[in-house]
Write a structure and sequence with these properties.
This protein is of the alpha/beta class and 350 residues long. Helix content is 52%, strand content 17%. The strands form three sheets. A six-stranded mixed beta sheet has the order 7-6-8-5-9-11, sandwiched between helices. The termini are far apart.
């Protein structure tokens, strides 16, 4: 019995040593994991010259580096440097890269709800309305749910307006008739439906087309975009309200890559990207108005704001396109219904 007790005691001591050593090893490994530097390549659809490449991607990368004490590094890549911009969705979905920024206009076939996110014509009168629709009325949550089906986390970078800069003034609905406008996507369809001669051309060709008279106007974002493209050298009119306010730029994160991050990094990444929506949207509005003030003062640009009765004529035409998008699936129908309810509340439609 004494021998058995002694053997049992030795075994107990041996097991205790192994157990305590195991705890130390696990603790050391946990500490090492907590201190590990994780680098994520992040391709964007913006060229390096784009203001959003600097003000969104590089700012978020710097913010994450600071908040994680250098443990999560986002490596920015402009459009084409790592991947063609239109391939970013598939690259994150397949796990080729853990994170990317893309346009909501690119992948509507895979996520039909992007038909609404990318900006139905005359969806909102002001930027704050789009922010409210996303964050308070649940549209952002709907988008997150649709992207989750593809194994992706979704975050809107910002919402911002698309507006026309013009060589000829548009003061009433009828002034659109025959106007030669550079446009793209669903807005090209809309402008054509209200009588304009809207057509697409690459950004690199727009200035020459405006200067030569081939085009009477164009949209490239709103004021900041038009100013950066030098449109105001020849276009002396800027038109509001916006053609749309859209969540054009979106962040995507691969769910499996996210799940491998330590819990604290998951929280920091999520919080930072959710915060980015408010910070960048607010900054964008400020820069829009700052730039408008500058071009009005220095380049003689006139801001034209259509009166409500003329805007109402445009919205009647826009609603036909909304109804077409609603047919693309149950989520699109739900979102368009929400959008109509919101505009009824704002007194713009019946």
């Amino acid at each position: 019995m004494k021998k058995s007790a002694k053997v049992f005691g030795l075994i107990s001591i041996y097991m205790a040593v192994l157990f305590s050593t195991g705890i130390l090893l696990v603790s050391d490994q946990s500490a090492m994991a907590a201190d590990e530097v994780i680098s994520w390549k992040c391709p964007a659809h913006w060229p390096m010259a784009s203001s959003s490449y600097k003000d969104s991607l590089q700012v978020v990368a710097a913010r994450l580096k600071e908040r994680t004490n250098g443990r999560l590094i986002i490596e920015p890549y402009p459009a084409g440097a790592l991947l063609p911009g239109k391939e970013n969705f598939n690259a994150v979905k397949r796990g080729m890269v853990p994170i990317a920024i893309t346009s909501s206009a690119y992948d509507m076939a895979q996520v039909p709800l992007l038909n609404v996110a990318s900006g139905l014509p005359l969806n909102f009168g002001e930027v704050w309305e789009a922010a409210y629709f996303h964050q308070w009325l649940g549209f952002e949550k709907m988008l997150k749910g649709e992207f989750a089906k593809h194994g992706l986390l979704y975050f809107t970078d910002k919402v911002y307006p698309t507006e026309l800069s013009l060589k000829k003034p548009v003061r009433k609905f009828e002034d659109f008739k025959g106007l030669k406008l550079r446009s793209s996507g669903i807005l090209q369809k809309f402008l054509t439906s209200i009588g304009a001669a809207a057509s697409y051309m690459p950004g690199s060709e727009i200035y020459a087309a405006l200067a030569s008279g081939v085009m009477d106007g164009a949209h490239w974002g709103a004021v900041q975009g038009s100013a950066s493209m030098k449109f105001y050298d020849v276009n002396k009119y800027h038109l509001r309200p916006a053609l749309n306010v859209a969540s054009t730029d979106i962040w995507l994160v691969n769910q499996k890559a996210f799940d491998k991050l330590p819990k604290d990094l998951q929280e920091i990444l999520t919080t930072t990207l959710e915060e980015q929506f408010w910070l960048r949207t607010n900054q964008y509005i400020y820069l829009e108005n700052k730039t408008l003030s500058k071009v009005v003062k220095e380049q003689g640009v006139e801001l034209i704001t259509l009166p409500p009765e003329e805007y109402a004529k445009m919205q009647t035409a826009a609603l036909k396109i909304w109804d077409e998008v609603a047919q693309k699936g149950p989520q699109c129908a739900k979102a368009v219904g929400m959008l109509k309810d919101f505009n009824r509340m704002m007194g713009r439609i019946k």
